[in-house]
Amino acid sequence: MADIGLAIAPATEGDLDGVMEIEKASFRAPWKMEAFRAELANRYSRFTGVRIEGAGGPLAAFAIYWLVVDEVHIINFAVAPEWRRRGVGRALLAHIIRDGADSGCRLIGLEVRAGNEGAIALYRGFGFSPVSVRPKYYVDNDEDALVMMLELK
Length: 153
Ligand SMILES: CC(C)(COP(=O)(O)OP(=O)(O)OC[C@H]1O[C@@H](n2cnc3c(N)ncnc32)[C@H](O)[C@@H]1OP(=O)(O)O)[C@@H](O)C(=O)NCCC(=O)NCCS
What we know:
seven-stranded mixed beta sheet, binds coenzyme A
């Protein structure tokens, strides 16, 4: 668990500049602002932000996940570099799993770069298993995607 107080809540338009900063610092092919704005308006999407209690300022992390019928699909997930390895990612993932279970979902899935050892370790820690590989899924460097899934009880 995080050794810091976290507030996890739906993201809003006012969070998008902070989201973009985390996105650019986290991914080699970052999403554009319009893509995030579209997720705020997507009825299947839960766009969730994490704040450090008492720290003020922009978000420390965010996730975007879709709830479609009885499955959750995590489509974006990142923690600001300065807040990594403090349990923020673990707390955010626990929130998503709880939300999925509370919403009646039976499965959570995601794609992760095959070389993203940190994220893979995080997902494995919650019981996610690799179920398939999508070869050369990431067009910027032809990296494979690992598809990972977790069955919810
Ligand atoms: C992957 C990421 C979300 C992890 O967030 P985080 O807040 O640092 O993760 P936590 O501190 O909650 O770590 C939980 C566990 O995950 C594993 N983990 C996280 N980062 C790791 C790393 N860089 N190397 C190895 N294991 C790692 C560890 O098991 C860790 O537990 P520990 O710190 O007790 O050893 C963060 O590094 C990030 O935003 N990376 C860039 C974006 C990204 O790759 N997103 C995932 C896309 S699928």
